[in-house]
Each structure stands twice: as C-alpha cells, then as structure tokens.
Design goal:
This protein is an alpha/beta fold. Helix content is 39%, strand content 12%. The chain is built from 27 helices and 21 strands.
Amino acid sequence: MTDTIPPSGDGARRSSTATEGPAVPRTAHGSGGAGQSPSGAASGPGASGPEGASGGTAGSPGGSGSGGSGRPADGSGSEGEGGDKDRGKDQGAASGGGPGLAALAAAVKSIERGESPSAPAPRGDAAEARRKRREAMAAEIAETQAAEAAGEDGTPGGAAADAGQEPAAGTTGGPRRPRPAERPRAARQSAVVDPAAVEAVRTVLAAGGAPETLAVAAVRALGEGAAEALREDPWGVLALDGVRVEHADAFARALLGGTAGPGDPRRAHALVGHLMERAATAGHTALDADTLRAELARNALPDPAAAVAAAVEEGQVLVFRDTTGDASRGDAEEPVNSGDGGGAEDAEDAEADVPLLLALDRYALAEESVADGCVRLLRSLDAESAGEPDNEGDGDGNGNGDGDGSAARRAWGESAAAAAPSPSAAELIRAAAGSGLVLHTGGEAARAEPAALVAAARQAGLRAYAAAYTENGRRRLAEELGEDAAVTVEGLLDGTQGPGRAADAALALDLLAVLDAPRLSVVEAADLVEALPDGARLVLSGDPYTLPPAGPGRAFADLLAARICPRVASRTPDAGPIGELVSCVGEGELPQVDAPDKEVVVVPVRDPREAVHRAVQLVADSVPRAFGIPAEETQVVAVAHGGPVGTRALNAALKERLNPGPGRFGGFDQGDRVVYVPGPGRALPGTVAGAEPEGLRLSCEGGPVLVPREEVADAVRHGWAVTGHQAAAMRWPAVVVVVPGDAGALLNRAWVYTAFGRGERHLSVVQGADQALAAAVAEGAARPRTTRLVTVLKELAADE
C-alpha cells in the first residue's frame, strides 16, 4: 500500500478503509428529457439560451463546446480547501532501512506497552481527552456565569439581566449566552501579536533572505520567542503556510552556513511535521509509514526510516497498525511454533510486517473522540430511557434494546411519524426516536425531512434544534422552522446561537439535526459530538455525493461505511430539470434534460477569453433579463482560483462590469462582492461596507464583520466567482458554472455534482471542456482519503 503526498497539499487521497462509503440509493426521476450517453454529442431540444447568451442550448452540458485553449491552472489554481487537483506521483521505495526500521518497530512496541512517556498510546486516550476538554469548557462556562452574575459594573445580574434575557425554554443549567448586538465581529483567526516580537522575527527573516511578510505568521505559529526559535532551528519556517522545503533549506544555509546539511536532525524533524501537515491539507488524517519514508527520501533525507522512528519515539506522530484490507492478515490469530525456539522471533517478524499508519495527535484523537462520542450517544439514550445500564441490547453493541424506555421512544416516534409530511420524514422520525445516532442521506429536497423531525420533536416538548454548516443554509432552515430553532454549527458551539450550555458544559438540548454533515471535518465533528450530553439524539444529514470536507477527514462518509447505527435514505427526489440533472450526475451520467423554461442552459465556448466574456454576459445581462434574477443573486462557480478562467480572472472581469473602482481599500471598493475566509474550510459571502483604521468592514448574511487590516490580503477575496468547495452547502437563485477547456485534470464527479446543485431556479453551464466534462462525471471519482475512523468506530461499537 503506497500513498503519495501531493505538492502543496493538493490532490491525492488514499483511504486506509479502502471505501468511499456505502452506495446510498437515490430515487431516479421518472420525468425529464431523453437521456444520452455521457460520451455522446449534446443536442439540445433547439431552445436557445437566455436572451443575449447566443449559442446556448438547454439540455445536456456534456459534449457542448469545442474545447478551450489556454494554459493549465497555475499552482494556486487547484481548488483551495483540500484541493482536487491530482498531482500525486509514485515515489517508489524509500531509501534507508536496517537500523531505522528496527528502531521504528521497537518504538511501536514500547508505545503499545505504555513504556514511552513521550508518546501517548494509540488507544485509550480518547475518553481522557474528552474529559479534559469538557472540564475546560465547564471552566469557561463557570467564568462566563460569574462575569454575568457580577456584571461589568459589579451589580448582580450583569449585562444579561440588563438586556432582559432569559434562558431558553426547557433548558437546564447555565444561562443562554446572549447573542451579540449588531456590531462587527472580530475575525476568528485574529490574534494580538507583540510588535517587538514581530520586529525581531523580521530581522531574522531578513538575515536569512526570507520575506519579512512572514513575520506575523511566524509569531502566531511559533510564539513570541519565534525569533530565537528560528535562529536555533531555521527549518521551523516549514510550519508556515506557503513555505516550501527548498525555501527552508536556503534559509537554513543562510543562517547556519556549512553546518546546515540534509541529514540535520532538526531538518528531519521539520520535514516529518511538514509532510504530515501537507497530507492533512489534502484531507488525510493518517499516512502509512512507507509513504512518509518515500517522501522523506524524495526530499533528500539520508535516513528516512530513522527519522520516522525518531518522530514516533518523540511523540511527534502517533503510530497505529493498519488492520484494514489486506493488512488485516497481520492481526490474524495464527499458531506459534514454539517447538524450535524461534516462535517469539517469528511472531515479532509477523507483527513487523503489518503496515503502520502514522497520525498527528490532534487528528488521531479527534477520530477517537468522534467514535467514542457516537458510541456513547448510541448507548446512553437507551440506558437513560430504560433507567438502568444498557446491558439488554440486541447484540450489535448499539444499545438498541427493547426495554420499556425503548417502547416509550417508539410511542413518541409513531405518534409524530403519523403526522409527518412524507414517508421519508416519517421513517426518519421513527429512527431518531429510537436511536441516539441516525444518519440521513438525500439531496436538496430531502432537507425538509430533518426539518420536519425537529419541528415534531419541539412539538413533543423536546429541546430540538437544526444546525446548518453555513449561514446561507441556516437562513433556509429558519424559513421552515423559525429563527429560534435554526442555528449554524459554529454558532451552536461558540454559544452565540442555540440553547447555550448546561452546568457540565454540554449543550442544553435533547435532539440535534445537523444538515450538510458531509462538510464536517473530523475536528469539527469531534467538537460537535463532544458537546452533546448523554441521552441526546444526534441526526447527521447530508448528500454523500457532494464534495468532501475542506478539512482533514471524512467523518460523515466514514460513519456511513462503519454501519454502526440506523441509516435512512430519503426517497424524495429533487424536483425540476436541475434536480434531474444533478441526480443523474450522482449516478455517473450526464444526460440531456428537458428544460422547457430554460432552467438549465448550456453555453459552448471555444477559448478562455470567450468563457470569461460569456460568464460576465450571463450575470450582468442575460439571466436578469430572462429570469428577473438580479446580478447580486447570481453566483459564478469556477474550477480553480488561478488560470485564465479561474476565480481571479472572472472576478476581475465581473468587478469591471458590475462595480468598477480603483480598489481604495486594499484592492476593494464599497459594494464589492467578496468571500471572507476566517479559517480553513470556512467561506462567508458578503459585501464591502467600508473601511476603518482597524480594517475592512463587511456586510455578511450573519451580520457585520470587521476583518483586521493585516489579514485582509489573505482572508478576503472578491466573491462574484467562487470555487466549488467555497460554494458547497450554499445555494443561490441562479448559478453560472464555468468549465474551461483546461479543467480536465481538476474535474471529478463530486465537483460537478456540487457545482451544478447550487442553483435554485436557474443553472447556466459555460462549457469549454468538451467530452472531458462527461468523462469526469462517468469516471472521475474523487480520490479517497486515508482515515482511521471506520476502524475505530467498529472496534468501539464491538466492545461490550
């Protein structure tokens, strides 16, 4: 088993579970136009595109156009968070071995026996980590309560009493945290840095020939002692975004002179961390040891095996046996021949042959925490309902016993299901009433089912909430459930939305339905599951065909693959021509669809310049004229940031047409559409409202935001055009998807599915990729990710 780590974090993903999740059935549409093979030429029904978009045809996007010219997207053009560009290359076997491999095997055994104080054991840490984190949250809640009780002026009741706020109905424990007034929120990634520390780092960077603009990032990453740390270990710059290995080597040679050799232990340590972080950027939570050794060898490290062994022994990475797939034979129980005196050595050799996975502790513990929390929810609900320990289960380790408590839950579920708006909603209600964890899959139309569940649960007296991944999704939920019941995942966890926390720091709720669950990274999933109290019900709902999360892991897909809890597949199809097209893409087909009202329009283009021109024309003229959808409600979705038809080029052309200006505020003008990225995987659309000495003021869906001046360049982009990852979990009345002729290597089925599904009323496809688009839908599945979550889930669920 060999993985490759893509350069700059783009591309190749490998799953240790060897699955992309189980096939989830979707209902095929019974209506629609004549289908066709993805490789067939497009032949629309003769309808032209919207007025002004000449050459457009309603129907199949596949095969339209005659292939664009132009260069491939540049290095920054791969789609941002996690990336989809395949740049991996087989690296071959790593150099080194011998003593290094022996040292690694010895380190593994030492850790497994608990003899290494510097490296925590691979298992058994999850519960302790969760306990510590909950204690920290409890301390934070207590501090907040004390501050509210004292008040800013020392009077009892404090600001909460002054504002007349009360805990949410039905909550227990701590009060609901007050939602801030309409004032700018500081960027989450912001952190006050010591100017003296920054200046000291600038001096060191200048001495090594590195850009002084890295100074603030270095202080944030390495602390106020960053200058001294970089003098002692120049390869520490590899911890900063955008720094490549050759840059770090040059920096080290400038500071250390001839002593900066390729085998320096400091270089080895930094390379291991850099490569593991780069794998995480590509979506992996773990990496097999052979791959890491191969990558270290490719970066001219003389003894890769010794470097990996040292990283394990020092606790820089955790090590696990890969017991999935073919590797599981290493854990098989085999008789040991002890008659010839060589049985122990043979057993050790067999153990050494088992492939090893390496993981950074935060991702390893996050996967352990997700598994621990999910199994805890499955068992605690049944135990709490029965009023006794859950030892009357059905044998699957899920605690789904048939005691009186289970009967009571079924009674609630049946009564609520009887009034459900659809059979699929009724099935989901029954499942959620009887289990602490339920997985729900479906398309856009299926979002109504978890909403119906939350509404029924609230009517039954439960403290129930629905959480979306984005503010755009929360707003759509609020239209069905009301403002009080609809929250974002971020707002729920930080206390600005939802019920707040109980005295033990757990969320004060009984049922939580999380929509857009495929967007959750493993760290976000861990934070969410850890915050839920024993006895709560968690429903994770989402479309398994969409793009994977921007951050490491694939929690929703791994939970589906583990099969440890009830799963409900919606039978509600997405309506209309857009829904029909998207559903077919999910099944690997790109058919012609019947779009009599031009809900789906294909605009063929010949080259990148024409693609940009047509996209601007559609947004500014054609779509508003034909459908009455203004330009500010039309979103352009591109394959990448860079390249002649990336978001940068498209945004420049759209700004010139829709809001021309000199870019007075750091390249932005008042009224510019932007997307604000407060952290990895987060994208918040907004509009520039103005500027202040402190930074750029944005008007976003969730309220005003002030982006500090020093972060504007990195955290804010123009937003008339966004990437598919940035558009995921959001929808607009009209969407223009631009597929240039050089996009073939960046396309895959999940990207097409996600991009095409962002439009509510209209979808235009600017098609220059010719047959590459149909080929991507038919064959281009996203590369898998290496994760451990399926294995950990199954192990914990099997424990009695």
